Amino acid sequence: MHFSKWQGCGNDFVLVDxxxxxxxxFAAFAKQVCDRHYGIGxxxxxxxxxxDKADFRMRIFNTDGSEAEMCGNGIRxxxxxxxxxxxxxxxxxxxxxxxxxxxxxxxxxxxxxxxVRVDMGEPVLEGEKIPVKGFGMDRxxxxxxxxKGQDYKMTCVSMGNxxxxxxxxxxEAFPIHELGASFESxxxxxxxxxTEFVEVRDRQHVRMRxxxxxxxxxxxxxxxxxxxxxxxxxxxxxxxxxxxxxxxxKLMVEWDEAxxxxxxxxxxxxxxxxEIAY
Length: 278
Ligand SMILES: N[C@H](CCC[C@H](N)C(=O)O)C(=O)O
What we know:
Helix content is 16%, strand content 41%. By secondary structure, it is α+β, with helices and mostly antiparallel strands. The protein starts with a strand and ends with a strand.
C-alpha cells in the first residue's frame, strides 16, 4: 500500500489516500503504522476521503487508534497533499471534518507552497459541549482541577476536539511526561482531553508544550495552539493574534473578533512517500 509521510512543526502523520488505497480498519491500521519500531512511525494517520458536503473529507486517528474530531497540523499536511499530488487545482478548498467544514488556504510564493492558513471555525466554550463535567453551559475559565494531589487552574476550549489549557511559569521545566496522562484521563473529561502547558512570554508570544489525547507528548499541536490562543484572550493574558512557540516549530494563531473564527497559519512538509506491506 502506498502512503506519504508528512510533518507540521514536527507533529508527524502517515497519510493514506482512500481514493486510491483500501483500508478495512482505520483504527487498527493507525495503531499498526504509527509504531516507530514495527511500523512507519507517526503521531497519527490522516485518511483522504470523498465528501458529499465538501470538496474532501479528512479523518484523523491517533497512535492509540482513537479517532479525533480534528487535527490542526494534520489539516495543513492534508491540504498540501491535495495540492502537491494533483487532487485539486484550487489554492483554497473545503474539508469535512469532525469539527465541521473547514477551509485551508495554501500560501504560495512564486508557485511554491510556503505554508497553509486554516480557518479553524469557531471555538466551543460551553462546558458540556467541550465536554467538561460540572459546568453545564458555563465557560470553563481559570477553574480548579486537581491532578496527583496538586491544584491547577484550567481554561477549557474545544476546536472540535477537547483542550485543557494550563498556564505555567516555566513550560520547559513543567513535568509534562509525569503528569500528562493523568490530565488526559482525568474524570472531568468524559472524552478525555488534550492538555497544553503554556508559558506567556508577552501579549503576542507564548511557549507551549502539549500532551495529546491518544498520542502522548508531541512536538506540536495545531488545535492545541488554537485553544491556547483562545484561552490567552479569555484570561486576559494575550492579544487576539499570538505566536505559539512549540517544541517542533512556531504557529501563528488569530482569534478574529468580527467572525469569531480562529485562524492558524504554519508549515506542512512532505518527509517521504513509500510502500508498506498491508
Ligand atoms: N490528539 C488529538 C488529535 C490530533 C490533534 C493535533 N495533532 C493537532 O495538530 O491538532 C485529539 O485526540 O484530539
